[in-house]
Specification:
13% strand; globular; Rossmann fold; five-stranded mixed beta sheet
């Protein structure tokens, strides 16, 4: 099958001058990247690198068979699938659905959908959650045709826990003692608060695999269940990921796109370009940019390195959408600070297309007539690429031959392996998130959880004084 490609020519000095890297820089990096490849090949599948083996046997069959069997049982009678999760427990679900199913999926009649409507509740905004649950209840007042997938390894993430308690109560009131048949919990197989609840209340469960952190979990049951429920070809998704992982085991930089991508971006970061934009020229791929943002930011933004030195390192990932954001962001990217690397995503062949009719007799618009929207979109991408090179702004292109599960699987594995390389190149732990933990325990304190009163006091001691509020409070 065809493969996605990485074109990084516009990151080199012969294209963008002193703002790019030289071919000699890449040659000098070859032995370093080869050594990192050997190191990552040795550690793949161990510790927090368990995600690398998800596309392969035996882990693949162990998890995938259960996901597919459960989806086949539940899909025929399910009209609404509600996913409760946040961060890595939600972004992958949304990205796969947006990339591989129609944008209008939830609006389509059931006989035109190969699965239920999907609602991913990834926040505790009361308007958002309330309106989504009201819409589910409108179409299924008794929740007989609704399945809830709660995703939490521990069960103690405040946002997901609050959503779960609300939805559980609604199901119990509507369905009585059989409500538990409508909850699927994706959680730790043996321990944790959610595991204890599942065992007590009899929920069907799927595993969050050992050694797979949230932002690396998209190819596990965390996201595969909703994908399988909504008719996505999860076998091809994992085939694509496995294909990319094989490529990324090569010690040759000419064959290993993840090693080159990580080297380009970390090297340019250290040369004053710490803002990394990912700009798909396709609405369906916009969710992948969201998924990438968490992966890149949470993995690489670290205060200390592996030698316990304060480094305050990490690129800032930004998402944009072509051609939409040519009219909102490109002005900054071309004439603002030259502190960015722009990554384009381009689709060679769209599944469907529209031709501009030749029935409007206006000379200024005749150049569009007879062309397709995909012609125009990809011309917009090439024109923006040209404009950035003219302004000496480094950029690269990830090209997808077409949008399908195989290529999306390749894309996701590419970025996850690139993240592992980037962690090594920056000498930081790409798998922890200590800054996120501080916010979690502070939330526990503010919400009155026992044992966290000290955190409430610390937060409240830093609250802004009323007299500094504009306008002043009465």
């Amino acid at each position: 099958m065809s493969t996605i490609t990485l074109n990084f020519a516009n990151c080199l000095s012969d294209r963008v001058g002193e703002h790019g890297l030289s071919p000699q820089d890449l040659d000098n990096a070859r032995p370093v990247l080869a050594e990192l490849t050997r190191r990552l090949n040795d550690s793949r599948g161990t510790g927090w690198e368990g995600w690398r083996t998800l596309p392969f046997d035996p882990m693949r069959h162990e998890h995938l068979d259960k996901v597919k069997t459960l989806a086949e049982q539940l899909r025929p009678g399910c009209e609404n699938l509600i996913v409760l999760g946040i961060g890595g427990s939600a972004l992958g679900n949304t990205a796969l659905q947006q990339a591989l199913n129609p944008e209008t999926w939830n609006l389509m009649p059931r006989d035109e959908r190969n699965g239920p409507r999907l609602f991913v509740l990834d926040n505790v905004d009361p308007h958002f959650v309330g309106q989504a649950l009201a819409e589910v209840q409108r179409t299924d007042p008794g929740f007989e045709r609704t399945i809830v997938n709660v995703i939490s390894k521990s069960g103690e993430t405040a946002e997901t826990a609050a959503q779960f308690i609300i939805v559980r109560s609604m199901l119990r009131h509507a369905l009585g003692e059989n409500y538990n048949r409508h909850i699927i919990a994706t959680t730790d197989p043996v321990r944790g608060t959610m595991r204890a609840i599942c065992d007590s209340e009899g929920y069907t469960t799927l595993p969050v695999p050992e050694g797979v952190g949230g932002r690396f979990s998209v190819l596990s049951p965390v996201a595969l269940f909703s994908a399988a429920m909504c008719g996505i070809d999860v076998d091809q998704l994992l085939e694509g990921a496995a294909d990319m992982d094989h490529r990324c085991q090569s010690e040759s930089v000419d064959e290993n796109p993840a090693a080159v991508l990580a080297w380009l971006l970390t090297e340019l970061t250290q040369r004053g370009k710490p803002i990394h934009v990912l700009m798909p020229y396709c609405n369906a791929l916009y969710g992948l940019a969201d998924w990438y943002r968490q992966l890149w930011a949470e993995s690489l933004g670290k205060k200390v390195d592996c030698d316990h030195r304060e480094v305050f390192t990490g690129p800032t990932p930004v998402k944009a959408l072509g051609a939409t954001d040519q009219h909102s962001q490109i002005q900054l990217y071309r004439e603002g600070p030259n502190d960015k690397v722009i990554g384009f995503m381009e689709v060679e062949q769209f599944d469907s297309d529209l031709t501009v009719p030749a029935d409007l007799d206006v000379d200024a618009l005749k150049y569009l007539q007879g062309s397709t929207l995909s012609d125009l979109l990809n011309a917009e991408k090439r024109a923006t690429e040209f404009a950035l090179v003219e302004s000496k702004r480094p950029n690269f292109t990830i090209r997808m031959p077409s949008i399908n599960a195989f290529h999306v699987g390749q894309f996701m594995q590419l970025w996850m392996v690139a993240t592992a390389y980037a962690g090594q190149l920056l000498n930081i732990n790409a798998y922890d998130q200590p800054a996120v933990e501080t916010g979690k325990v502070a939330t526990f304190g503010l919400m009155g959880r026992a044992g966290y009163d000290e955190w409430r006091q610390r937060v409240e001691s830093l609250a802004p004084a009323p007299e500094r509020t504009i306008p002043r409070r009465p």
